[in-house]
């Protein structure tokens, strides 16, 4: 899918499941421009343009979790699923995670430093709850109750969180909360 020419920065990025990688070049270029003054992100993003060893992921976030990641209070991201869907076994150390506000633009970026995928059973559930609730910023028992139907979980430690300014409009038509671009 060819990106429309747009002289406005940042351009709107259009994602299509039929051609999921078509938006990556424009997205990387836009991120590089947005991070032009960042000594950490600028070379890393430039390397992503030439390297094929890591993946860019886009996670859709709701509040308060989005703000907690941006503030550095939430250092561990989780995704639970009934089926083996991304990011389960699709994310690895060094991958990039774009933080997209639910129904809105990409507002942040971070790097995944560690990733763990679990097939859930009673022991794994207890481990997740007792060992990771603080880093996940889970304070409500309702969260765990809501996720108890899940068979799979992925935990990702994130660092180098940076707000993307200006936010990047990102249009996708599906309801998935995670994309591996």
TrEMBL record:
Tell me the ranges covered by the ASCH domain, including all copies: 62-134
Q: One Pfam family this chain carries? A: ASCH
Q: Which domain of life is it from?
A: Bacteria
Record's protein name? ASCH domain-containing protein
Originating species: Hymenobacter glacieicola
């Amino acid at each position: 899918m060819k990106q429309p020419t747009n002289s406005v920065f940042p351009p709107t990025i259009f994602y299509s499941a039929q051609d999921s990688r078509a938006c990556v070049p424009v997205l990387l270029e836009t991120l590089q421009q947005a991070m032009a003054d960042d000594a950490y992100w600028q070379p890393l993003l430039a390397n992503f343009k030439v390297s094929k060893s890591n993946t860019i992921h886009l996670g859709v976030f709701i509040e308060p979790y989005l703000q907690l990641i941006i503030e550095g209070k939430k250092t561990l991201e989780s995704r639970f699923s009934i089926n083996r869907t991304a990011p389960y076994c699709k994310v690895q150390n060094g991958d990039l995670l774009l933080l997209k506000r639910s129904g809105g633009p990409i507002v942040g970026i971070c790097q995944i430093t560690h990733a763990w995928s679990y097939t859930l059973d009673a022991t794994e559930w207890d481990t997740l709850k007792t060992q990771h609730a603080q880093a996940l910023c889970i304070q409500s028992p309702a969260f765990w109750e809501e996720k108890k139907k899940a068979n799979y979980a992925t935990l990702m430690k994130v660092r180098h969180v940076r707000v993307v300014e200006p936010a990047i409009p990102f249009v996708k038509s599906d309801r998935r909360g995670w994309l591996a671009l």
